[in-house]
Amino acid sequence: MYSYLNLRQHFFIPIIIWLLAVPAFAQAPTAYAAAPDSTLRVATATERGSANTHRQYKTAINPAFDDYLQQALANVNTRRQLLAGLRTANPVSNQTRNTYYRLAGLFSKAKLYPQAVKCYLKSGAHYAYADLSAADEQLADSLLSLSSKHLHRKSAPINYSTVAQVFEDGKTANGYAIIVHIRQPVPGKAKVHKLANSGHSFITLMKFNSDTTTTTLSFSYYPKHQHPFAGTPLFPMSHGTLKNDAGYDTDELVAKAIDKIAFDSLLALTQRYSQSRYNLNKHNCTDFTLDAAKIAGINIIETKGSWPLGKGNNPGITGQSILQGKLYNTATGSTDGLFIYFDDKLLTTKQ
Known about the structure:
Blueprint: H1 2-21, H2 63-73, H3 76-88, H4 94-109, H5 113-123, H6 136-144, E1 156-158, H7 160-167, E2 173-183, E3 200-209, E4 214-223, E5 237-244, E6 252-258, H8 260-274, E7 277-279, H9 285-296, E8 298-300, E9 304-307, E10 310-313, H10 315-323, E11 327-329, E12 339-342
Antiparallel strand pairs: 1-5, 2-3, 2-6, 3-4, 4-5, 5-7, 6-12, 8-11, 9-10
Helix pairs in contact: 1-2, 1-3, 2-3, 3-6, 4-5, 8-9
Protein name: DUF4105 domain-containing protein
Keywords: Signal
């Protein structure tokens, strides 16, 4: 097996560099059939609110390339060769853009969200406010240190002052972005809860700095548990608090580049929520996440469901709407300008 994998790597490395370097029009037309991608979904041209019209118009490349990319990322030496190919490739070719698409998906799966968004923006399929021309070295460092092992960490309480201080780092911003994260109680199903598990919704805010670093924080709104049943259907109201969700898993995510006005509005929203009362039925983590998404121009349709003794916005229904393409970018009226990531296996989950 060892010698077979080495043979495959040596066979595909020249091919991948050729695919990246040669302009799109000079390559075989069979490598460019419009088809869904098994690793990453970037949906475009979606009519508002209609799951039946959810379509993906995206250039797909030869399956051998996808196979190589997965192999290359598992080996430090082949990662370096992949990076060398990206640096010398035609930046506007379809193959280069598709490579960044796939890297965005892989970084998302690894919870390296700043790198995922940078790859998406560098793919060219966006309406971006960020200048990422100097970000290549940071992406390279992330690729070389990429690991498939990521542990879930318990979310720790934070206050609004902590959120504000993270982004008041004295660094000049080149751009901003937001990621909406949804963790369904049953991945791929429109279930509001599974026993005591009701899922979770949270956001990641990002500030891209002129020194090529990224300032980022993942967080959401929670009930403050004065007693074991606070924020539950039995006692839906509670004091509210913010928590750091950097270690939380995600089933679906939606990212978008935003301007400073929207970013400042998101900080103001966070401050208002931090000073408010939690209500499971109408002021919960999904309400916070959806309010943040709307400020950023991300609109998700059909987000409400019911549970014993209550009803409201929830991760199960919201995540399913993302899977079904029931969302749009306010700026475009479609999903153009949104980076949408989830595992395509969720689309085949039995309801």
